[in-house]
Amino acid sequence: MNQIISRRDFFDGIAVSALGSPVARVAHGAPGQAETPQNAAYGPRGFTVRGDTSEALSVPHALRDGRFWAHADPPEATGERYDLVVAGGGRSGMSAAAEWLRRDPGAAVLVLDNHDEAAGQARRDALRRRIRQERPDGVMCDAETFGADTLVRLASPGWADEVPIAERARRDLRMLHEDPPDWFPRLSAEEKQERLAALTYSEFLLQVCGVHPDVERFCRTMPCREWAYDTRAFGAIDAWGAGYPGFGGLVLDRDKPSRLNSPSVRQEWQAGAGEDHVATPPSDGRARLRLSSPVVFARDGAGAATVGYFDGHQVMTVEAGSVILACWSAVVPYLVPELPEDQRRALRSAIRVPLLHATVRVRDARAWRRLGVLRVRWTGAYWCFCELESPATVHLLAAPCRSELGPGAGAAAGRRELVRTPYGRLEHTIRDQLARLLGPAGFDPAADIEAITVDRWGHANTPEYCRPWHPYYPDGPFPADVARRKFGRIAIAGSDSAPVGRGDAAVSAALRAVGELAR
Ligand SMILES: Cc1cc2nc3c(=O)[nH]c(=O)nc-3n(C[C@H](O)[C@H](O)[C@H](O)COP(=O)(O)OP(=O)(O)OC[C@H]3O[C@@H](n4cnc5c(N)ncnc54)[C@H](O)[C@@H]3O)c2cc1C
């Protein structure tokens, strides 16, 4: 056998099909949890997968499934000692390192991340900013939902007539947009908001507005590009806050948010929200960044903490005066098993929502121009949104969350499906959907697609407290209050600890964690 199989592959079970040995079978872990084996070999020219790849996730998943320590050699000390070691090189971890050095310029800081590039989710902030500002100008009523593909151009005044649904459903759609009644005429404004907070947007459409089911199917993917789940999980109160159709007759004050809106919807009302003081540590050697180095434990000790990370071959350890865990909260219980049970439970409850972002380099934008739309939402196909960025880049987003289960359970189920989805399917669906959308305008995927990069984020959007899923919101007490408790020399940062899916929350969490350790 000439195939080189790294130790990292072993942890993810990728080696199973190659080896078939009893050891490899043990490494495979729970059925259905491990990465699909074909992905290790999948790599046609011009197709790249980045982000939460099988390589980046192999060690965290092996830790989760209890396979890691059965196969790892005993840790080896590097002999290094740092004032601060940070797990997670996203916006929060980098901000923590920068803030530590601002307070103590002579300090030595180490940042460890499991990916082979730094910056975590912040790498996609520019895309999100554009998505927030620009609404879709087309909806592809796709074959997956309506039996055949029909592109509806929203700029044309009679667009509702083009939607391939029954006439009664079209009437309902027009009513939602143009003249919705007051659905709760006898309730005060506050009571109306309470009613909305108890419903998802799908429930609002079907149960309160009583619209034809095709209308709900037409609207379903509206929140996906921002929230990574659909209207079956998206709250009606946040749909109102985001200006979705159907609420005009309620005559609620649109000058200010409801206290029941989730944190990032509330922040949309504040001028300048979205920009934050991004801090990066100086590049003069005082802060070291070690990539492809997942942290596997952090242990508090009498004179110092010890942090272990996997360097691709074995576990290396460093000593740390202080530790900040700015990785995903759900990972922390595996890194610090000594944490109290209530804190471990609270940390595990922060389930990030998966999201895929594909960047496709195309030969030119002529087909888009002929088509007359730039940003298209799909109603049920794998990729729920695609847009042209001039001059010749196409972005696509996919939201594998199983929204019918709610944001938490749906995210976990969607992620399980995502790790089993062959990379070949990701590539095929991109080519297929671009051909279906742009083919009538002369686009030929075989000739016109030059390169595809998929950022696969199994752990993407920070889970926020939102109605109707978290009845304790906004009054508390919140699981995050327990989850972010300091443990000896170990503090917990990251946007999950807020929990708010915004860059400014990630930075604030970092400043809080540094402040806790400095006390
Ligand atoms: C598509 C998208 C676009 C966005 N756009 C905006 C925007 O325009 N404006 C805005 O304010 N916010 C935006 N956000 C939100 C913002 O980017 C995130 O909330 C923020 O970047 C999260 O930072 P973080 O450091 O908490 O988490 P992350 O960026 O996820 O960083 C955590 C890091 O920890 C690493 N890690 C996990 N486990 C381990 C381990 N065991 N060892 C070592 N490292 C580990 C992860 O790989 C990751 O790199 C966007 C989010 C998304 C999903």
TrEMBL record:
Gene3D superfamilies: 3.90.660.10, FAD/NAD(P)-binding domain, Guanine Nucleotide Dissociation Inhibitor, domain 1
InterPro entries registered for this protein in UniProt: FAD/NAD-bd_sf, TAT_signal
Domain of life the protein comes from: Bacteria
Region: Disordered, residue numbers: 258-283
Protein name: FAD-dependent oxidoreductase
Species in which this protein is naturally found: Nonomuraea diastatica
